[in-house]
Amino acid sequence: MTQRGTLDIVNLKKTFNVNGNTTPVLENINLKVKQGEFVSIIGPSGCGKTTLLRLVIGLENSYEGQILLDGKRINGPGLDRGVVFQDHRLLPWLTVERNVGLGLEGKRNGNGVNKQIVEAHLKLVGLQGFEKVYPAQLSGGMAQRAAIARALVNQPELLLLDEPLGALDALTRMYMQLELEKIWQREADVTMIMITHDVEEAIYLSDKVVIMSSRPGTIKKIIRVELPRPRDRASYDFMKLKEEILEEFQLHAENVFSYAI
After folding, report:
1. Largest interatomic CA distance in the chain
2. How far is the C-alpha of 49 from the C-alpha of 41, rounded, in Å?
3. Are 100 and 124 in contact (CB under 8 A)?
4. CA 49 – CA 102 distance, rounded (Å)
5. Do 50 and 162 contact (CB within 8 A), yes or no?
C-alpha cells in the first residue's frame, strides 16, 4: 500500500508549442519522493523547475508520463497539495487569521472548529498574537510564515514551495530557513518539495537535493544529504557537500550557462 504523501514522477516529458514549433521543456524526469521527505530542486533559470512544480500542483495536464500522488494520477489542483510562492500572496484587505482561514471556508467544520484550526496553525508558525493584523503590517518573514500556515491549514499531504524565501534579505532568509525546518519537523507527515536557487539553503533543509540540467530540463543528479540536524553550515562535511553540488554546476556552465552563486 502506497504511503500518504508519496510522490512518483515517471518518464515525464513536457513540451510547449511556440509559434507553431514544439519546444521541449522537461525530458525523461523520474523522481520518487517518500512520505515526510524534504526535497529541494535546483538548476539554472529556464530549466523547467517551475513548470515541474506546476504539473505537480495540477495546473497543467498536457504532458507525457505519469505524476502520481499516493499511487493515483494527478489530474488537477486539490486540497492534498498546499502551495507557497515567492510572493506571499496574502489578501491585503483581510487580517492574518482570515487569510489563513480562507482554505477552510468551504468546509463544514463549524466556525468554532475552523477557528481552532487557524489558531493552531498560527501557533505552528509563531504568529500567535498577530491574528488581527493586516499583511501590510507584517515583515516579509512574518508574511511568508502566514502564507505557510495558509498552505498547511487543510493538512495537505504535499507542500510545494516555489522559492519561498527568495524575496527576503540575507539575515531574514537564514532565520526563515530555521523556522521552515522547525515547521517541517513539527508536521512530520507532510512531504515538502522546494524550488530554490540557493545551494546552501537546499543543503541546510533537504533530505535530498535534485540537480536539474538546462532546457530541456532533465535530472542530472540526486544527492542525498545525510548530515545530522541541526546542520552546521561551517562544518567540513557541509562545505564539502556544497562544493560537490557547485562543481556539478560548474562543469555544466563551462559549455551551457553562467550560474550566479
Report:
1. 59
2. 7
3. no
4. 28
5. yes
